[in-house]
Amino acid sequence: MEKSANQIKDDSSRRDFLKGMTTFPLLAVLGVKVQPTDPLVVSAPGQAASRSAAGTKKFVAIQIGGRSFVDEGVEKVLDVLSEKGGVNVLMPTVFTYGRGLAGRQIPGQPLPDHGVREYDEIHGGSYTAVHPGFYAKSVIQNVRAPELADFDILADVIPKAKARGMQSYCLFEEAYNPRLMPGFEKIAEVDLEGKIGSSTCLNNPHARDFLLALVEDWFKHNDLDGMMWESERQGPLNNTLGAHFGRFTGEARIYCFCQYCVSKAARQGINVERARAGYIALDKWVKETLKFESRSGNGAFVSLWRLLMEYPELIAWEKYWVQSQEEVYGLLFQTVKAINPKAQVGWHIMHLVTMSPFYQAEQDYARMAKSADFIKPCPYNNCAGPRFARYIRNVQSTVFRDFTPDEVLELHYRLLGYEHEVSLDRLPTTGMSSAYVARETQRALNDTNGAAAIYPGIDIDIPTALNEKRTQPSDVKAAVLAALQAGAPGVVLSRKFAEMKLTNLAGAGEALREFGFG
User: Fold this and answer.
1) How far is CA 485 from CA 441, 488, 489, 515, in A?
2) CA angle 302-303-307, nearest 5°?
3) For residue 113, which of 385, 475, 471, 479 has the smallest C-alpha distance?
4) Predicted pLDDT of residue 461
């Protein structure tokens, strides 16, 4: 029986994907970074020359929410940041619905040694003024956060910061609350079953319009020196496999298959129905593998590889997802540069990049540097202990089911260059060493080769369980020194000032003085 023209085209398309892309998972497992050949974002002529080079003054930034300024006073906070941490760049959280960058200390965690000694609740949204004219094209309106009254984290802080010689980079993240955002379903991601998720679709034009409206509003009304965006998520392949450090039960929702993603993917030659079938098959494989105990037969890795051979569209869709995220980076970059060519634009890269060779292969810093003035990798060495341990147990339950957890950790140490870190049983309480910070800083510097500045994130009291690794001043000092000695032109003190102990913040200042910048 002869095949139809469409069947021949589909078969040819699948063979092309298989030939060009099925090597990707193996290369990721082996720690080889894959660089796609088609450039997704290209800087406009002359933009590269405007990017700041590392000078004699180190870039010392801190992430901070509006609650800290309201509770403790803008002037007092700025004095503390400068005196204790040597901070010369503010990264005020201007938009989020999450607690990671806004609000006081996370409930259940020890209160720090400054600020109001109680927990709070947050609503979230924009912590600066919202000018309706900029949202004419947006389906999302009225996102002003109500909990800090009329306090404006940009207008009320930037002038006072500049008076002290501090720069201001607005910080915002993909942390939404659909319940508090009327119309969110119009910009939401959609899973395989047609149900909307809690984040936006990267290809949805309304979602892109909303992000661009936020950025235009901020930069046209405030004297900003730059911005940083946090897009802390990864593609559906890694999420389905449990390749992350969150809780994993095998019940992953697979995003995004909305109308915009489907039509765009089809235009790019991806067989959408084969991609759907592949993810359904992968989800079934994960659930079956989680029950797998015997090592007889082909084993988990062989059966996974066989599945990827059968459905190369899985890899095609993963690449497509990463490509879409990078397109949004490019749009934000060009929007800021059109308003203020001197403003510095950068990306926070999820902490997972230091643990997962799969995610690391996707997050190509050299590629990102085409639409970035700086990149903030996150070698958070204290909370990396419990997070890395959870990640290892997650991937051991699926991809590496044929191995013991200790063997999987050793494999990752070898792949990622962490040979001298602690064993799995000690990891949650010990954390990672400052050598881990240096290694990830050096990798980022090598990958970008000067095309974008590298400002590693420094973990200062990022929450962990009370019986897990807790930050000490010596940890902060060692991490800052490791980043600077590795060649970083600066650091970003993370996650937010409201959860940091001043004694630990002072470790950063001590490191800067020892390095000759205090």
Assistant:
1) 10, 7, 10, 8
2) 115
3) 471
4) 98
